[in-house]
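Incident review: delayed structure delivery

Summary: a single-chain prediction request sat in the queue longer than the usual turnaround. Root cause was a stuck worker, restarted by the on-call engineer. No data loss occurred. The affected request and its eventual output are reproduced below so the record is complete for anyone auditing the incident later.

Affected input:
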Amino acid sequence: MAGILAADADFMIHSLKKLQILGQEVYLTTTHVSLLIVCVGLIVFALIVRMTLKDTEKPSGLQNAVELIVETLDGMVKSSMGKHATRYRNYIGTLFLFLLISNISGLVGLRPPTADYGVTFPLGIITFILIQYNNIRWNKFGAFTDLFKPIPVLFPINLIGEIAVPFSLSLRLFGNVVSGTVIMALIYGLLSKFAFLWPGALHAYFDIFSGAIQTYVFCMLTMVFITQKIPEDN
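Output delivered after worker restart:
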């Protein structure tokens, strides 16, 4: 009996359709569908907000809410990046909203896109590129010579520390989201006859609280790593 119920605990990525693109087999998965729904939802929300924006003394409730979100995100970026915040507030703001909606999408029955390492790793790579771009831009040749400091023998450790950034960022986010997905699937699969009302408290933790925390951590580390590569006098 336990084996039958365990089989119902579905937390895997499933292939929905096989496509042929340029002679190659490409599989449409549940991750692609969830990712598309999240992205389309954010775009539609942005268009609705854009159409309802009014330059009046009495803005609508939606406009007030959006302005509060924007001001909060701008304040978060400015507190971490100082005078360099204007360059990255759009990226960090977009990243924050995308990760937050993706992490909590399990509340509406989707498999969170961030529970797929194929989603979190590219985000880690983007952050890594921004870090190294600022490192080379502001430190020039020092971006490479710093790897040999304070003593040349530490070069391998310093190099590994730089390369590990996208992996640590992406694995932290992926691990926390997928663990919540697995736990909730096991609860509904193994305790299906008793899973009513009380799993809501677990959803509040794994989807909302943990999802928001992981979003904040990913964005905060991105800003910290980028800022560390910019000299204080710039």
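Verification: Residues 2-228 form one domain.
Action items: add queue-age alerting; document worker restart procedure.
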